[in-house]
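User: what does the whole thing look like in 3D?
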Amino acid sequence: MRIAMTYSRVRREERMLLDAFEQIGVDVTPIDIRSVVFDPERPGQWGGFDAVFDRSLSLTSSLTSVRVLEHFGIRCVNPRSAVEICSDKLETTIALCRANVPTPAVRVATNGQAGLAAVEEIGYPAVLKPTVGSWGRLVARLNDRDSAEAVLEHRELLGSVQQQVIYVQEHIDKPGRDIRVFVVGGEPIAAIMRSSEHWVTNTARGATAVGLDISDGLREISINAAACTGADLVAVDLLECPDRGLLVNELNHSMEFRNSIETTGVNIPEYIARHVAGIAEQACASEEISV
Amino acid sequence: MTSAESQTATIHVDCPECGSDVGFRRPPLNGEIALCPDCTAELEVVCTAPITLELAPEVDEDWGE
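Assistant: Here's the predicted 3D structure for the full assembly of 356 residues, as structure tokens:
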């Protein structure tokens, strides 16, 4: 069995993953995706791999590579459809709604005027998010009509075309924290609780994390959220709503975990490496059968 | 990399920002990120033969999980 791991930067996560593969005795070829030229008519070196594990830091690189690689019939981790669902908040919302997984209310509009109506429908405070983005960047809490008008006008005049899509979410009065569950192969393996005095509880924005036991309810909603994306590996972000309980806020297809190993006591990279190796083994076996 | 880890490193390169020693325990890959133990600059390996470090780029629009 042969596995490639594509990357654009080798952060601590990618180094830990390569070490984990080595520790379990699985050979992995790291490939810097920035140096690759794809020919859609010829798989070339890629034809020799049973699975490609995408760890590109850039979403554009991820999507580009998995699109071509799946076209070659190569099993990608995560699959293209899962990357597309998780990387776009509107796609995530649609997938969660379709699967009846509880999630905060959302309104979507395609220009500023309808955007203001969308915010008013949600009510104040409302949370405005770019449909594509991470680490809590460009997320704005709109406390009143004045702030909504100001932010929407800035978006309209200064933002990219993509930012003209107004994705507005109800604000959940969470208890100063949110929850992240790491799901590998459909099974929640670890969870953390992220706390911050700031309303954005993202560790990239300074939130602190502690390990959390996975309750039955947390387990069930995390499994359902992961299942509706078809992802092999996914981090499920949840909010605790005082009225409605757990709500799935976002899904992450290329999870960061450097600060979650000690806090949870779970060797996350080893779980991931074993799962990816299992997928490659299965892909390798099915190729042999078809030959 | 902490200064304790730097002492166990087998490969040593100068930090392009402050000139301090940045260590690697194994040959780094192109694109590998390292922290200078002295000035805490985030550095990227831009060449592996010889190993050359540059300041790592700022966050890009579509980066992240």
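In plain terms: The interface with chain B takes residues 7-12, 15, 30, 32, 34-35, 57-60, 132-135, 137, 204, 235, 252-256 of chain A (CB under 8 Å). The two ends of chain A are 15 Å apart (CA to CA).
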